[in-house]
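Example record

The entry below shows one chain as it appears in the dataset: sequence first, then structure tokens.
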Amino acid sequence: MARAYDEMYDDAGSPRAHCTGYRDWLEAQPAERLAQKRAEADALFHRLGITFAVYGENEGTERLIPFDFVPRILPADEWTVLEAGLKQRVRALNAFLADVYHDQEILKAGRIPSEPVLCNAQYRPEMQGIDVPGGIYSHIAGVDIVRADDGRFYVLEDNLRVPSGVSYMLENRKMMMRLFPELFSRHAVEPVEHYPDVLLHNLKSVAQAGITDPAVVLLTPGAYNSAYFEHAFLAQQMGIELVEGQDLFVRDDVVYMRTTRGPQRVDVIYRRIDDDFLDPLAFRSDSMLGVPGLLTAYRAGRVTIANAIGTGIADDKSIYPYVPEMIRFYLGEEPKLANVPTWILRRPDECSHVLANLKDLVVKEVHGAGGYGMLIGPAASKAEIEDFRARIKANPERYIAQPTLALSTSPTFVEQGFAPRHIDLRPFVLSGKDITIVPGGLTRVALRKGSLVVNSSQGGGTKDTWVLGC
């Protein structure tokens, strides 16, 4: 595998121009102070309850997400490139969703094959013909960006259903400002703390026409969900009600919230529940998390759901390889951000190539998430590779494969001192009347030496992300 691009140092070991000021400050810090600050951060995160539930672990369900105080720093010109590419991509993805649930022009034109779309478990026939406000399906998108050894940014995957992690972006910045306030007087770091206000404005902007002061709620599965901290945090920051399915009901195709003052109409639901559990009358009948009749109210145009039901078809990994073609088809433009080269294993020739090179590739389940259902060939044992080989041969359509990228690294404070660790970046793209991106995002870091898996569920940590002003 090629040598990874270092976000802070060039090949000669000198700090990159935009990192010089921070590097000089860091080298002047006594080791004892930095160790003390890390302990202080851990204690604060514990006190605030900033944890992540990890299912299936014997030691318990709650784990503190490790926080690294060495920020990932992006210069203004690089952010400009990323921002333009992200807006273009999300615009095309929303156009694709509107199309596949209406006229399906891209399928009729043969630019994307019909089978992986219409036969996909994430495609929701119930959404066919429904006009959603503003034609927007993905109001909140988390697009995972990596930088490869050539220094270029690539889109690793799109998260359009219920993307998570923005609360950690906000808390990481608050933590950095508390631990090292002097850094923010020395560097022109673009702010992120206004994200909840931007999100609320975005959600209100997609309410049904004619409603002057829309009532917005955040629908959570409840306290046992892995991202419940984030649900409660965002609701509190936006000043809206955090509700569970039992707090809502539908009457005459209108959604209401139960309150001590009687029923209150709800206009916009920011849902953090998967499609299957939203409405037991339309989807899984055994769901105790959803709202009976919600789909009927939605189809009647009496409530906005963010993100829309059925957005999962656009972030399924089997659809990911076609996003550049969506950009060309709907926007008439060339993609500003490239995909990672991808083999589609439902194609026999590509499947044969992958089976012959498993030890060098990353293989992913098309419905997988959180770093589960993945094979990283160079880090896998022979037994793991053979197990995956059998799985692929049995159901090739369930997998895609990609080269093993040398994800860029950032200096990270570990037990032995500072060492490079692989990172990615998840910016959050908000679509309403306009497309808005708060400068930065969540930088995730693979804390184990040599690991390429940054997911919190797989032991990854997080960093503050600085976008420097011009």
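Notes for this example: Residues 17-208+303-336+406-467 form one domain. Residues 55-60 have pLDDT under 50 and may be disordered.
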